[in-house]
Amino acid sequence: MNQSNPMPGLLHDDHVLHRISEELAAKFDGVFSPEMVDRYVFESYTALARTARIKTYLTSITRHFALDRLNALAHSQGIRPSGVPEVLFVCVQNAGRSQMAAGLLRLHASDRINVRSAGSLPAEHLNDNVVASMKELGIDLRQEFPKPLTDDVVRAADVVITMGCGDTCPIYPGKRYEDWHIEDPADLPLSEVGRVRDELDGRIKRLVGELL
Amino acid sequence: MNQSNPMPGLLHDDHVLHRISEELAAKFDGVFSPEMVDRYVFESYTALARTARIKTYLTSITRHFALDRLNALAHSQGIRPSGVPEVLFVCVQNAGRSQMAAGLLRLHASDRINVRSAGSLPAEHLNDNVVASMKELGIDLRQEFPKPLTDDVVRAADVVITMGCGDTCPIYPGKRYEDWHIEDPADLPLSEVGRVRDELDGRIKRLVGELL
Prior knowledge:
Two copies of one chain form a homodimer. By secondary structure, the first copy, chain A, is an alpha/beta fold. The first copy, chain A, folds into two domains: about 70 residues, Helicase, Ruva Protein, domain 3; about 130 residues, 3-Layer(aba) Sandwich (Rossmann fold), CATH 3.40.50.2300. Chain A has seven helices and four strands; from the N terminus they run αααβαβααββα. In chain A, strand 1, helix 4 and strand 2 form a beta-alpha-beta unit. Chain A is globular, with a radius of gyration of 18 Å. The termini of chain A are far apart. At the A-B interface, helix 1, helix 2, helix 6, strand 4 and helix 7 of A face helix 1, helix 2, helix 6, strand 4 and helix 7 of B.
């Protein structure tokens, strides 16, 4: 049998993840138990590690993802309501459309709306032309990453907007739910991605007007 | 904007999931908090719903998956040790090789070894020829389903065996870890799948001999 050694990098990650877990447990003291926060951190890491191609920033991405999920959960349970409308964009890969939509909503609504995005089958990384196209508007998506759709973020959302993910998106009763028909920018040239972006931009502006 | 109604089926699922959550919370009373069991049930459901094509048995599959993950977690924390070696098989789709390996190990070791399988990118369903090929040995895989790799099952494993998932499998220190070079049965005709199965069978028998 082909015996291999454990990858040394993961020894290091385990240590970092425990530190993140302790930090977030303190943040959610009295809200969630330390054991639950710990599970959120370690399962978020594994969920991202399954699909992420570049592992370099995986622990800081994990911290960001786990923190956002815990905030979503606290909000959905009415423990720490955000006080602003919460919007979730979902597409298949969370590499193009849902990332653009989230970036545009942040641009137009700033902190008056809380926005998240996720994918039913997250890609390894964001689409390069999507990142370039958003940069033309001054929106920096280089720190964003494809995230799997989780129960907590769906429950936290007041508005769920799906784009091309068919029936793989679980929809909860009582939500405002929309399915937008937006062309998939994957494999489109930069100029065409700009056209998709501008179409999305019009919809996002209307959504912001309706929510605020 | 294209306004749709929530899918009625999910109202029903939500109700069933709450019942599953209560049942499992009672099973793990004094081990895990009801809130944590609840998260395990609902996140397991969403994780499976992301990729499963057939949604008919999703709640009973969810119960099975969440229960197995909670058992894995309790074992890994030394709270409820299983008392037998725990083996985890991982491939990309959890639709072929890792399912065959798990089925063969169950055949040869029965309850003397605890076995799990998972995928880094779970498929929509098991490979038909894999199910047929295993049936030739009297092993019924029709109740099995592709599951995403989670942190809890990796931590519970004494032996992790990967097949073709490259560096997407997180490996924890202190585990026995092997990478098996086994041909991917996807798209192979039934006779060739039988050859792959028999090669796996030889390795599984050796593994059982070593572990028991």
